[in-house]
Design a protein that fits this description.
about 5% helix, WD40 repeat domain-containing protein, 2 helices, Quinoprotein_ADH-like_sf, single chain, Methylamine Dehydrogenase, Chain H, mainly beta, WD40/YVTN_repeat-like_dom_sf, 28 strands, four-stranded antiparallel β-sheet
């Protein structure tokens, strides 16, 4: 494993990065808290790409879907056309975007929106603030301001699990739901029909991210691989010592968005890839 840092030292000190993704044509794009969106070049420099975003825009998450780069923001959903951001029909605060079953869905302040051939349409499934979601053939899992909600597709019924704080991100770990709360805790399905909060001392978890059948946790103490052993969550260190807010995956390279250390990379050797 080899660590490196993009060498834009002065720019690095000015930005607190909160989201990162790999866009079309392997374009590396990162969002900084309150200071815009940037393209990160492998040569080490950055270029601002805020054209088309309204003043005061805060990017909650960057995502790519079908070779289109999206920005989920407090001003709504935007997509990149050429070198300019264009507003979509989702004009309310947007937090997450995912593709499921050939459709594109967005989590917003007022529930779930779905993109069809007619454009973006608001669904009637849930009308409250949604931060993240996971779909399965049987259930829809929602992370919201109230906690965790599960919708049964067959019975059209809800089960709500108030967690005392918002559920801000979710992933599936070995068939069980794992998520983060607005207070930096982990939430994990206990295989008994309920969910428990899991607290690691001096840790604040920003998000959990699934990739390649694995789940990673971004935290104030670094990037970790999440595993489950005898019904207990375990953390395996990928990168320690820096607050990692998001991670993007490009082949054998991890691209880390950090609060204070810019954009960092971790290059895995082939023999290390299976062990991480």
């Amino acid at each position: 494993m080899r660590d490196s840092r993009f060498p834009f030292q002065q720019e690095r000190l000015l930005h607190h990065f909160s989201s990162i993704t790999i866009g079309p044509d392997d374009m590396l794009v990162a969002a900084a808290l309150g200071s815009g969106v940037y393209r990160i070049f492998k040569e080490g420099h950055m270029a601002c790409m805020d054209n088309g975003l309204p003043e005061g825009t805060i990017v909650n998450r960057l995502q790519q879907d079908r070779d289109v780069l999206y920005a989920c923001t407090n001003k709504g959903l935007f997509h990149l056309e050429g070198d300019s951001w264009q507003a979509d029909e989702v004009t309310v605060p947007c937090y997450q975007l995912k593709s499921e079953g050939g459709y594109c869905f967005a989590a917003t302040q007022y529930g779930i929106w779905c993109k069809s051939s007619k454009g973006w349409l608001k669904t009637d499934i849930y009308n409250q603030e949604v931060y993240d979601f996971i779909q399965s053939p049987d259930f829809l899992f929602l992370g919201s301001e109230c906690g965790l909600s599960i919708y049964d597709w067959y019975t059209s019924s809800w089960i709500h699990y108030p967690m005392g704080s918002p559920i801000t991100s979710m992933a599936s770990l070995q068939g069980r739901l794992v998520g983060t709360t607005g207070q930096g805790e982990l939430v994990f399905g206990n295989a008994k029909g309920a969910f428990d909060k899991v607290v690691f001392e001096r840790f604040f978890f920003y998000s959990v991210i699934a990739s390649g059948g694995k789940v990673y946790a971004c935290s104030n103490r670094g990037l970790f691989l999440l595993t489950c052993f005898r019904d207990n969550l375990r953390l395996i260190s990928i990168k320690q010592g820096i607050p990692v807010t998001d991670v993007a995956f490009g082949g054998s390279t991890f691209y880390l968005a950090t609060l204070y250390d810019g954009i960092q990379t971790i290059a895995l050797k082939k023999e290390e890839g299976g062990a991480v």
